[in-house]
Design goal:
alpha/beta, about 300 residues, nine-stranded mixed β-sheet, globular, TIM Barrel
Amino acid sequence: MFTPSYLVLHERGELINRVEALAEYSRPCRLCPHACGAERTKESLGVCGCELQIRVSGAFAHFGEEPPLVGRLGSGTIFFCGCNLRCCFCQNWDISHGADPGHALTDEELARLMIELQLAGCHNINLVTPTHYIHSIVAAVELAAAQGLSLPLVYNCGGYESTDVLKLLEGVVDIYMPDTKYSDEEAASKYSDARNYPEVNRKALLEMHNQVGTLQIQNGIATRGLLIRHLVLPHNLSGPFKTLDFIAHRLSKDSYVNIMAQYRPCYMAEKYSELSKKITFSDYSQVTEYARKLGLKRGF
């Protein structure tokens, strides 16, 4: 029978130590690679645009995620407001960039929300854009573990993560689900205001892979491991071929890689002529064919 990693830490009394260590990174804020040093108050919001208290836009059984997460009863998805990336084509821009302020929750309320998703039959707790709130999320997991939470924890992020913070999540997170958005610094700077994204992302993927390995699936449901997402942009502006090379040669050819075809111009994408149209069949097929040539075979 599968036992989530965080329950082991909870039983040892170690999980509360992780909460305290993460809190040290939250003020001044160094939870993400921007390390902007914001106090995360109304007067000092930092890059993510958020105060320290968690704000949630919504939570429900989600059936639009990858099949190993969704299963029959859905992924217990919690959408957090704000983001540490400023992607001009963000499809969830209303949540990520402040149009939807969401609802403020205490750690206790978030813990209860996790328990409710478990009672609804969800297969996992899917934390969407958790990076800037991870100090409080882990505190909520500690409280929820004491109340009987026993679902795998999914860290669903943009892939711009601090390896120092990730190391504090070892044994807490069961499934890492990062984006790998760019292999090109110019594109990362122009479209997401994070020039060092390629280097930071590769270090983060290596750390995640070292912690949990490739995706493990039992009876059709993911229990542990790394699930990587790559969104194909028009004209392959994201540099997908270098990204796939890295995954195949530095991580594993057994990596689960969701090569996503759903790009459409959202938010401020139409300010850039090269992003103003959907991708073509050729854009997408070039990427999937290259992945197959590298020996990648899971997830797309």
